[in-house]
Each structure stands twice: as structure tokens, then as C-alpha cells.
């Protein structure tokens, strides 16, 4: 289960609208913001580019008293579930997946040692006190010259599950970070391409998912299909999937991997708004549905190579379910730090969650949904043109008839409802490009269960969010916070979070392999406490940052995956901070 990439934008299929940031399409449930993905925000995703060794599904029992280990242990047992093969239980040394890892407690550092015999990591000698498990990931393939994200767990638990769990796909997927890796798609029987349609590539077995926008430009040289096209003829794209693996997974059909191309047919919810409809954001909402899919044939992908993939689309049957979406309650909670909402967006997304009896970590393809943004509406609906007075209107309550594609394959149709607040900030480098900071609320659950009642937020934003004791509103800034500021807050007024994640993001530009990146996560701190001090390695003098505090129900600090399909999240934000 994965919360996209990030939850920087609304989940599902999103368009860029005037006055709104370009959102990142996210499959629900478990990636760190701005990264290619992981199991949970601030969590540790599996990396399996090396062949693991077979291990026990649980520690052996001998009838003797349970061992008392003087320190902290973390299971290294993982269960993988390929699509059409028996599940595989493996042990993998988590140290292979990190650039560094150690526990810091009471001023001392305790290194991690891997015990293959006991299928676990051991941090010997850690006292029974609050400690920090500090890890750093390898550099991301998009940013080879920047250090990987730093992930810190502040806990007291003696047994952790960060590196164990149940995952979709096979365990020995190879991965690459080479920018030249790509696909050339040749796919027939395409339903005529519309102006808002998009495509989605996904592999269950390689745990890879990538949304792909057609380039609607007659001068395009990539081979992208154009409006009205009924086939894809040699369209070459860069391979940049989201994943829970390290790097970009390479699909290998010789090992049983699948690769699908879904066609998401999109269009307006209201065809031609008139009169009072011009003052309703829902009149400009977008709806989309997985209308057809093609299973692709291709040789094994190789690092740095462009692989030809072929297939034909076949229609996907669809179903319709009613969703009573109480958007006004989301809007009310999103404005607790500042009543002046200036840019908001909501999504209602149906996705296919891997796992049936319980959720497991893996890619989640889109099945259908809606996207709506706040609207600068004319105060007089009869007024036309740029000189009309306007007012900002947030999305209101709406009963939606949600159509979603049903591919009749294993998994759980899951509904993810999310509303996001955006606050635009100036480029600290002096450029003309505005960036944004974001806060959001999301509710996730089984589609057939969550739609039985009105959809409302179930976990509020944390209260009294402060930096070094000073509140920093989303549209404010605070200088001189130092490189180790203290972040404090109070629990939400409703809902009972299991854990908090403090994500540190920068709005300073950095050059990536595909061009400049304006906004990214530097890492996170995951804890059950309501006050933490940001350790070294996150903030630097002269930098520009902001902090998001995520409250989460359905996932604990020592869990490897959620115990339930029901996941509630809220994410508050500070304004821009400078050390």
C-alpha cells in the first residue's frame, strides 16, 4: 500500500488548473513526499536489487524461555507475493539498502549488526530510554549528486518492524538509476484519444507504477499519440516509475513479470456550465475512469536501454457507486491555521490496493475518480471578461456517481478521499517561479465499506504547531530558527493518531537528471511524541525550508504495514523557515 509519492498533491488523476500548482499523481498510501516511494511516510521501503536469502517466516521456537536481548532488534523477514506464483519468504540484510544506520541514545551511538541466523538487525547495548534510529538512504536516481533522504525514528520500542512486512511482487527485482532507461510503446485498438486523457504503466510483479501524459503537440518528436489517435505508434518515454523498491525496477517477463498500460479516459463533470453553475467549483471538476488496458509484451528491460513494448487495448468493465462527499468539513479543518483559503483541491480516487484479507505494500493503479479545485468565480454570474469582480469559492458537499474500472483481478478496490490546501511562496532564489507549501486531510478504506456513509475527515490537523515555541502560519516566515529547531504541537481535536511524522522539505532549487527540482523532501522524523528536535543533517545555514506534521491512524512505529485497509491522515504545515 502506498500513499503517493507522495501526497504532495491530491491522489488520483489530476490536471493543472489556472492558479493551482502542478500536483503529483499519487497512488494512496505509503510514500515519503517527493521521493520515488516507500512503504509509509517516513518509513522504510524494501530494496531488492540483490538476491535475498531464504529465511524463516518467524523466529524459531525451541521450547526454551524467550531470549532477552540487551538492546533493540528489528526483524529482517519479508514475505513477497508474486501475481501468479507462490509467496516467497526471504531474509535480507537492511544494511544493504542504506548508506548509513545507527541508534543514538543518551549521547552514545550504537551500530547495527545483521544476524542472518536470527533473521534480524541487532543494536546491542541500547539502554531502555528514548532513542533515535537514524538512517540515510542512498542517493535517489533523479538526484545522483545529492545525499539520500535521512529517516529518523524516535522511539522506546525494543522490537521494530520497519524492515519486515508483506509486499506485492517478486523479491529479486533488478533496478536501475540510469537516466537513459526507457520504453517505446506500440499499442493498438486505442479508443480515440481525448484532450484530458492520460495513461498509466504498472507492473504488479516488479512493483512499478508511472502516470504518463501524452504530449499533444504536432511538433513532438517522441511519437506521442495526438488527439483522436486510435493507436500508439512507437511512443518513446523515459522510465521513471514510483516503487517501493530501490531505484527504478526493471520489468523482466522471463521471470514472470507483467506490464500493463491503462488508458484513463477523462472529461468534465459538467459539459457546459452556465448561470449559477459558473460559481460552483464542481462545474469545472474533472472525472476519469480506467476504460481500457493492454497487457504488454517486451523482452527483459536493461539498464540504460530503450525497450520496445507492444500490445493491444481491451475494454475494461466498469461499475458505479455513489459517494456522499462532505467537502465542507474538510475545508473547515484545513483553515484552522489561517481562515483565508486561497487555493485548495480535492480528489476522490478509486484504486486497486494489493492484498485482500489485509493490505500489503505494493503499487496501486487508478480505477476512476474525480478532481476539483477551488474557484475564482464571478460575483455576478452574468458578468463576462477579465474586468469582472471575483470571489474564491471552495468545493462544497456533493453526492458523486463514481464510475471505476473493474479488472477482476486480485486486490481490494479502495477509495482515497483527500483535500489539499496550497499556499504559494516566492522563489527564494529570486526567480519568477512561485512554489507552494501544502497541508491536507485524507481518508482511505475499502470502497464497498467507506461508501456506506458520508465521507468526512476522521483525523484532524495537529494543533498549536510551533517552531522553537513560535507559531509560523502557512503564509508567514520565520528566520533564525537554527539548524536544530524544536518542533512542537498538540494532538488533533478529533481522531486518535497512532504516530506522527515530521517531514522537512526544502524550496531551494536543485538540478536533477531531468531538469530543475523546485521542492523536495529531505527526509522525516517518525515518532509517537509531540515534540522533537530536528537533528543534524537536515537544515543548513542559508537554506529555505518548511515542515509538515502528519498525524496518522492505522500504522504504528513498529509496524511494517497497516493492520487495516482503513487509513486516516492529516498533515499540517508551517510557513517558510530559515536557519
Automatic annotation (TrEMBL):
The keyword Signal applies. Residues 28-67 are annotated as: Disordered. Keywords: Signal. Residues 28-63 have a biased composition (Low complexity). Residues 1-26 form the signal peptide. This is Fibronectin type III domain-containing protein. It comes from Nannocystis bainbridge.
Amino acid at each position: 500500500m502506498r500513499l503517493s509519492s507522495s501526497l504532495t498533491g491530491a491522489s488520483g488523476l489530476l490536471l493543472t488548473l489556472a492558479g493551482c500548482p502542478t500536483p503529483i499523481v499519487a497512488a494512496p498510501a505509503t510514500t515519503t513526499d517527493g521521493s520515488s516511494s516507500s512503504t509509509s511516510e517516513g518509513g522504510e521501503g524494501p530494496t531488492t536489487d540483490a538476491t535475498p536469502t531464504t529465511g524463516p517466516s518467524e523466529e524459531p521456537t525451541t521450547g526454551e524461555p524467550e531470549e532477552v536481548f540487551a538492546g533493540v532488534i528489528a526483524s529482517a523477514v519479508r514475505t513477497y507475493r508474486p501475481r501468479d506464483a507462490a509467496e516467497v519468504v526471504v531474509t535480507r540484510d537492511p544494511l544493504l539498502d542504506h548508506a548509513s544506520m545507527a541508534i543514538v541514545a543518551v549521547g552514545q551511538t550504537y551500530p547495527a549488526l545483521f544476524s542472518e541466523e536470527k533473521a534480524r538487525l541487532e543494536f546491542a547495548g541500547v539502554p531502555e530510554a528514548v532513542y533515535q534510529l537514524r538512517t540515510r538512504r542512498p542517493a535517489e536516481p533523479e538526484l545522483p549528486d545529492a545525499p539520500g533522504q535521512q529517516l529518523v525514528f524516535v522511539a522506546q520500542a525494543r522490537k521494530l518492524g520497519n524492515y519486515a512486512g508483506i509486499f506485492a511482487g517478486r523479491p529479486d527485482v533488478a533496478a536501475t538509476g540510469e537516466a537513459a532507461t526507457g520504453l517505446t510503446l506500440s499499442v493498438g485498438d486505442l479508443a480515440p484519444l481525448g484532450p484530458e486523457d492520460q495513461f498509466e504503466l504498472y507492473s504488479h510483479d516488479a512493483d512499478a507504477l508511472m502516470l504518463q501524459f501524452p504530449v499533444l503537440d504536432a511538433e513532438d518528436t517522441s511519437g506521442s499519440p495526438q488527439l483522436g489517435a486510435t493507436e500508439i505508434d512507437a511512443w518513446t518515454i523515459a522510465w521513471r516509475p514510483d516503487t517501493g523498491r530501490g531505484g527504478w525496477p526493471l520489468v523482466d517477463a522471463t521471470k514472470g513479470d507483467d506490464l500493463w498500460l491503462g488508458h484513463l479516459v477523462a472529461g468534465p463533470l459538467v459539459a457546459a456550465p452556465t448561470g449559477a453553475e459558473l460559481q460552483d467549483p464542481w462545474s469545472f471538476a474533472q472525472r476519469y475512469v480506467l476504460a481500457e488496458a493492454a497487457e504488454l509484451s517486451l523482452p527483459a528491460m536493461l539498464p540504460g536501454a530503450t525497450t520496445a513494448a507492444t500490445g493491444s487495448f481491451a475494454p475494461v468493465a466498469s461499475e458505479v457507486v455513489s459517494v456522499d462527499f462532505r467537502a465542507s468539513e474538510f475545508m473547515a479543518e484545513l483553515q484552522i491555521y489561517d481562515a483565508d483559503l486561497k487555493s485548495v483541491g480535492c480528489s476522490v480516487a478509486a484504486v486497486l490496493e494489493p492484498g485482500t484479507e489485509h493490505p500489503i505494500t505494493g503499487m496501486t493503479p487508478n480505477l476512476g475518480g474525480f478532481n476539483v479545485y477551488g474557484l475564482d468565480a464571478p460575483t455576478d454570474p452574468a458578468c463576462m471578461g477579465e474586468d469582472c469582480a471575483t470571489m474564491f469559492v471552495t468545493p462544497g458537499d456533493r453526492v458523486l456517481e463514481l464510475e471505476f474500472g473493474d479488472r477482476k483481478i486480485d486486490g481490494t478496490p479502495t477509495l482515497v478521499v483527500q483535500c489539499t490546501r496550497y499556499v504559494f511562496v516566492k522563489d527564494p532564489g529570486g526567480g519568477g517561479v512561485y512554489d507552494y507549501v501544502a497541508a491536507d486531510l485524507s481518508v482511505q478504506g475499502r470502497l464497498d465499506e467507506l461508501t456506506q456513509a458520508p465521507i468526512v475527515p476522521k483525523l484532524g490537523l495537529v494543533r498549536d504547531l510551533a517552531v522553537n515555541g513560535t507559531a509560523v502560519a502557512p503564509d508567514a516566515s520565520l528566520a533564525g530558527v537554527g539548524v536544530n529547531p524544536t518542533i512542537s504541537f498538540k494532538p488533533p481535536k478529533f481522531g486518535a493518531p497512532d504516530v506522527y511524522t515530521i517531514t522537512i522539505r526544502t524550496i531551494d532549487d536543485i538540478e536533477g537528471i531531468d531538469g530543475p527540482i523546485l521542492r523536495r523532501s529531505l527526509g522525516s522524523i517518525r515518532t509517537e511524541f509531540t515534540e522533537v528536535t530536528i537533528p543534524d543533517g537536515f537544515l543548513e545555514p542559508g537554506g529555505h525550508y518548511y515542515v509538515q506534521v502528519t498525524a496518522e491512524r492505522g500504522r504504528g512505529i513498529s509496524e511494517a504495514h497497516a493492520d487495516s485497509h482503513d487509513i486516516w491522515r492529516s498533515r499540517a504545515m508551517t510557513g517558510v523557515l530559515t536557519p
